[in-house]
Amino acid sequence: EKIPLREIMTTPLTSVPSDTPMEKVANLMAKKGIRRLLVIDEGKLSGIITSRDILKFFSDYVSDMVEIASKFGIR
Questions:
Q1: What is the tens place of the pLDDT at every residue in 2-50?
Q2: Residue 53: what are its φ and ψ, rounded to 5°?
Q3: Which residues sit opposite 40 in a β-bridge?
Q4: E strands, the chain, where?
Q5: For the whole model, what pTM was predicted?
Q6: β partners of residue 39
Q7: Which domains are delineated in the chain?
Q8: What is the DSSP string of 7-75?
Q9: 74 vs 53: CA distance, rounded Å
Q10: What is the distance of C-alpha 38 from the center of its chain?
């Protein structure tokens, strides 16, 4: 409880604006080996995106593509 954050945080901080495409976010996180990414808009923290968020997004995306393909008889 008495350890300053500067002693355990990763620097420099990596952030993206909220309009960054998900593919770019996933590539950035993979390239830098980070699991959490700050979302900054107009100099203020808008949120944090996590590797779990990325997995959920792409899982939902693949499920949607499978459903669309099945409507056309594609497996």
A1: 899 888 887 888 999 999 999 999 999 999 999 999 999 999 999 999 9
A2: -60, -40
A3: 45
A4: 15-16, 36-41, 44-50
A5: 0.70
A6: 16, 47
A7: 5-71 (3.10.580.10)
A8: GTS-SS--EE-TTS-HHHHHHHHHHHT-SEEEEEETTEEEEEEEHHHHHHHHHHHHHHHHHHHHHTT--
A9: 28
A10: 9
